[in-house]
Amino acid sequence: MFTTKSFIKKNKIGNFLKNVKEHYIRDDISCGISSCTKCQTESSSHLSKYQFNKCSLYDFNHFIILDTNIILHQIDVLEEPVLCNVIILHTVYKEVKHRSLPIYKRLNTIIDNPNRHFYVFVNDHHKDTYLPEEQGELINDHNDRCIRKTAAWYITHLPKKHFVLITDDSKNRELAVAENIPACTITQYVKNLENNALLTDKLSMNDSFAKAEEKDIFPPHLSTAELLKGIKEGILHQGTFRASKDNFLEGFVNVESFKDPILVQGRSGLNRAVDGDIVAVEIFKKENWVSPSEIILEDEGASDETIEDVEEKERVLKSAKVHESEIKPTGRVVGIVRRKWKQYCGILQGNSEGLYQIFVPANKFVPKVRIETRQGEFLRTQKLIVTIDSWPRYSRYPHGHFVRALGRIGSQDTENEVVLLEHDVPHSQFSEEVLSCLPKLPWIITEEDEKRREDLRDIDICSVDPPGCTDIDDALHCRLIEEGKFEVGVHIADVSHFVRPGTAIDLEAASRATTVYLVGKRIDMVPQLLSSNLCSLREGEERFAFSCVWEMDFEANILSTKFHKSIIKSKRSMTYEEAQLTIDDQTKTDSIALSLRNLNKLAKILKLRRLEKGALVLASTEVKIMMDSETMEPLDVEVKKLYETNSMVEEFMLLANISVAQKILKDFPDCAMLRRHPTPPAINFDPLVKAGRHLGFDIKIDSGKNLADSLDKATKTDNPYLNTMLRMLATRCMLQAVYFPSGTLQKDDFYHYGLAVPLYTHFTSPIRRYADVIVHRLLAVSCGADRIYPELLDKQKSSELCQNLNYRNRMAQYAGRASVAFNTHLFFKGKLNDEEGYILYVRKNALQILIPRYGLECTLYLSNKGESTMFEYDEEHQTQRAADVVFHTFDPVTIRLKLDSNNIQHEKFTVQLVKPSVAGFSVPSLEKLEKEGLKPNVEKSGGWRKRKSEGTKKCKKSRFSY
């Protein structure tokens, strides 16, 4: 039979429509219990008579019924195997899906596990448990009534069985008990389980911590109704909160209606916002706007740090001078629209005893979290995952709960796991469903394949890649085809041949979006059989490729372009260094050597032409970690060496990407996947312009061409590294390049600022980038080599795909940097080095130093907490002066570098000034100490010692230890 459900819905033009739907009621839905003789229960039913729930609250075995909020807030508890024989009502199941898709997916994983015996009972279609909504009844009240109705039905349906309702809603619990339904809270239930220590730690505590402070330290948040009203009336503004990386008492809220982000400062200004939260902000009157602070303030996390210490830091922050030219819209967070909390990796702080511990997240943008655990002694040796539950206004830190331990602190595997989790990198093993999509071995090229592809196996093609590269995406060739004319080919791995649309391997690759490279570890986008074998253009192996072939004259002018799927056989796989040696060795005259020399000549012309059009040459510190092959410990850290061949390969990859972009946009004007690099707003260039002005250079930013020319002219003979540092600053002014479907923007917005080209895409790395796979599919349709499919032409789906690609690519970059940082720290443990560096930024209380040899940036603090400083800060000229020594941006310095591991979670380098010498502040060089027979004490704090046992002396010249 069926009944009807009606509801009112507002359409796009504002009219209200009444919708009526049929709702079928059935009498053949099973209760799910295998021993039930009343229901047509399948033998594979999820609820088992052989499983037992043992809770001392009840002296009988029982089945568990959960309400919606238990699943939403206690999913970490439910994932533990101790709980079994759990009934999930369909009413609850739908509500969980509606309110939290990630938790819904985690719930489904539990339900799909046959060992857990979770059963979804379709109560809203069962004739004895269906309840229609009453007039004026709230959805929450109706759901609670459905839960109680179903629990009561189970009790009468199987009177010899026992059922317990778990709910934290006091009203629902009281009504259940009144209806003779056994009910308790999740906390009561878990704390009365056998061996509950681990499970108790995983309880979401919400506001259950006792109030420790005497007064509120944050202002209250406005209610949801007040927030919505304020936003609607324009009194409040909604935006995403971003914490400052340099100052834990400062943040910004990106609001659409304001050109600049809204600056928020101090505890009351930030008001318990966590990085990524969607918040409501109140804008101050213009006379109360201030400029961002130039002070670096860290939440040191010292166990004895009090609220008074934080208040002192706030006073320092508020006393900072306001720069009229840099004033930003200023306001305060008045409420949270939507929390973006997730699981965080980190460690427990210090040696806190007792039940309550302070958790320090690996992500410095996230505040410390207060948790309750009975495993403190063990967990202090581990990297953990913790979830934030709430942030009461009386607590300095948010409250949360322990989720799981990842492994021992400092372990390479553990740290890699932390990096991957913190940056949301999918890294589980490929499923059997994905692996089943792979071709069977031995894989061979058939006659049918040869008919469909251009056979280029006789052409002398080679690849040039970094050392140790196994996922070879691209190969090149250049040959003279007639007088004054070259044929130049870029051949790219044909991944789209193996990764077909809509298959499990395609969906997995789309989700991962990119290969992630950590030090000594690679997280592949596609399984290794493809990435390192069948798709990799290895030397001497016949492989499928997608070729872009140009006819060029000797001046690198393109005479014609063609694209086709091909079969190639690479003659050589070389490193950049090997290719450079081949080019430079004039005695080598074989076809590969001639091809490389001609490619290099053409590449130089192409690069010069790009630069003349305004393409930027930027700089960043890329380092290479040399690893011990057995212990996998870092042996050395060095900046990557670049050769002409790096630029040679880059030029032809850029040219191929541009040529393919032109082709796919012509054939698919509304759905071509392109890549744009937006022009940065002028304000982004402020640090660069200011730095250039102080050095006597006029950095022009009105166009990419003028910026490029300004950077070319900004050189000094007495500081050869100065230009590189200016280019590094320019890199930091840039916006992220992003993927987008062509039909979603105007053509003027397609422009790629950094490359100074009107059109660009990614075609050359399909093994490691999913965007390139999509571009290959579009190009294959253009060439008649493959067929179209609906999703390829769907702008909405393409836009959603691009959002994921942009996010995953950004996270992959951050993960790679974090991995390099960890291994660099590992290399420096126990070492004390004097290094040459340069001042990158002059701050009010510190100098930020770049050490080119290791690609490191460190902070040299000029005053300690509670100390007066001998330095005078000149805000106008951005200098620090001590006596007759003046520090400017980009000045060379010599510094003492030592890794401070006191805070294991946030290890950092302590930096001491060696040169220039500032009396009472600088330290003597290690070379001088060696000559005087003094040996620095790396481990101990506060002194240095003679090589022989002559006792320990205090060094009065420095605040730091030797």
Task: Explain the overall architecture.
The chain is an alpha+beta fold and about 950 residues long. It is about 30% helix and about 25% strand. A five-stranded parallel beta sheet has the order 5-4-3-6-7, with helices on both faces. Strands 8-9-10-12-11 form a five-stranded mixed β-barrel. Strands 13-14-15-17-16 form a five-stranded mixed barrel. Helix 20 crosses helix 24. Residues about 940-960 have low confidence and may be disordered.
Total number of strands: 41
Strand residue percentage: 15-25%
Please summarize the sheet with the most strands: 5 strands, parallel
Average of the residue pLDDT scores = 85
Number of helices: 26
Low-confidence stretches: 940-962
Write out the strand line-up for the largest beta sheet, numbering strands in chain order: 5-4-3-6-7
Protein structure class: alpha+beta
Topology:
Elements: E1 2-10, E2 16-24, E3 63-66, H1 68-73, H2 75-78, E4 86-89, H3 90-99, H4 101-112, E5 118-121, H5 139-157, E6 163-166, H6 170-178, E7 183-184, H7 186-191, H8 197-201, H9 224-233, E8 236-243, E9 250-255, E10 262-265, H10 266-270, E11 278-283, H11 307-319, E12 330-338, E13 343-348, E14 356-361, E15 369-372, H12 376-379, E16 382-390, E17 399-408, H13 412-422, H14 432-435, H15 447-452, E18 454-455, E19 462-465, E20 474-482, E21 485-493, H16 504-512, E22 516-518, E23 521-523, H17 528-534, E24 542-553, E25 558-569, E26 572-575, H18 576-584, H19 591-612, E27 623-627, E28 634-639, H20 644-667, E29 673-676, H21 686-694, H22 704-713, H23 722-733, E30 738-741, H24 770-782, H25 795-828, E31 832-842, E32 846-851, E33 856-861, E34 872-874, E35 879-882, E36 885-887, E37 892-900, E38 908-915, H26 926-931, E39 934-936, E40 944-946, E41 952-953
Parallel strand pairs: 3-4, 3-6, 4-5, 6-7, 10-12, 15-17, 18-25, 19-26
Antiparallel strand pairs: 1-2, 8-9, 8-11, 9-10, 11-12, 13-14, 13-16, 14-15, 16-17, 20-21, 21-24, 22-23, 24-25, 27-28, 29-30, 31-32, 31-37, 32-33, 34-35, 35-36, 37-38, 39-40, 40-41
